[in-house]
Write a structure and sequence with these properties.
Chain lengths: 171, 174
């Protein structure tokens, strides 16, 4: 692994001791280009801190269609929603290029959190900051959707409304 | 004010008595009169408020100069937290919280929270874990609601858009 932990944003707040504590549960893992990291609806029992490479996120919103949600370059984190909610992937994540990552087992990490590990809490704090920004964007999308629903013309063209949902909602 | 006031508040219930006491030491009492804004939509990210008495309305402006009441909250029935997202994020509030009666609240200013974070105080990190969970749960649920609505529209069945709208605004995280 080439990237030192302290240079990865999600670990930036940890001091040397906390990094050492976390390192005990980190599992180096690599994925080859094209490999599936999470399968939509499948287990999400790991959180991956991606150090190098590009991942792609897809979701089957409509039967027969694979909706590409995002293409994200390292450094990034995948599987964080599974950590904070249910360990079931809401979307498929694949490696677009070769990937180097740190795997964090969900159960072990939750044990650390339940044991009030400050190292683990600091990692979640960084995740929380990202989620907070995502929530802000989502709230604006909702405002647009509501405005459309409440404008009388929506009922005349549900197909257009469906397209809007598909295109404007960032799952 | 005592830390007991926070014991039954969602987000604070997982803290130890000592950690709740830390927050209460940093917190300020705040009072709002009828019509006053506790949180203003689009403003700078601000404080977290635990509403301890009174009633508030949560209002959101919609495209086209319209406004909608998202929720009416009676703090007398349940102690309620607003402004939790502002502690973590850098975006302004996504809705206005307005007092519809005299409101008493416990205020934890964002600057105080940020200072607690930079001091590495576990209480602040533990609170952000709880906030992150609430956000993650709401985001996951919303994604499911929207995906389901898209599928329903695709089946050309009866789609109750008003009910869909109401589900989208449930549990708004301010």
């Amino acid at each position: 692994m080439t990237t030192p932990l302290k240079d990865i944003p999600i670990f930036s707040r940890l001091d040397a001791e906390e990094r050492a504590e976390l390192e005990e549960i980190l599992e180096p893992v690599s994925f080859s280009a094209g490999e599936t990291i999470f399968e939509e609806g499948g287990p999400e029992d790991y959180l991956y801190v991606v150090c190098s490479g590009i991942v792609e996120v897809h979701k089957k919103v409509l039967p027969g269609h694979r909706h590409v949600l995002a293409t994200v370059s390292a450094p990034t984190v995948v599987g964080e929603m599974g950590l904070l909610t249910e360990p079931r992937a809401a979307a498929t994540v694949t490696a677009r290029t070769n990937i180097e990552a740190h795997g964090i087992n969900r159960d072990r990490f939750l044990e650390m959190l339940d044991g009030d590990s400050l190292a683990a809490c600091k990692v979640v704090y960084e995740i929380g900051r990202t989620l907070s920004e995502r929530m802000a964007k989502t709230d604006e999308s909702i405002a647009h959707i509501i405005a459309r629903i409440e404008r009388a013309d929506t009922s005349h063209d549900l197909d257009v409304f469906q397209d809007t949902l598909l295109n404007e909602w960032s799952f | 004010m005592t830390e007991n006031q926070l014991r039954t508040v969602r987000l604070f219930e997982f803290l130890t008595d000592e950690e709740r006491a830390e927050f209460m030491e940093e917190a300020e009492a705040a009072t709002f009169e009828v019509g006053e804004d506790i949180i203003r939509e689009g403003g700078r990210p601000g404080s977290l408020f635990v509403l301890t008495s009174g009633r508030v309305e949560v209002r959101k402006s919609l495209p086209g100069d319209r406004e909608r009441v998202l929720a009416k909250i009676d703090a007398g029935v349940e102690r309620t937290v607003v402004g939790e997202r502002g502690l973590l994020g850098k975006s302004g509030a996504s809705a206005t919280v307005r007092a519809s009666s005299r409101v008493e609240a416990i205020r934890i200013p964002r600057e105080t929270f940020r200072r607690m974070i930079s001091e590495g105080r576990p209480a602040a990190f533990k609170l952000s874990y709880r906030i992150a969970r609430v956000l993650a749960q709401r985001l996951t649920r919303l994604d499911e609601e929207v995906a389901e609505a898209i599928r329903e529209l695709d089946r050309k069945g009866e789609t109750d858009l008003e009910a869909f709208r109401d589900r989208l605004i449930t549990d708004w995280a301010i």
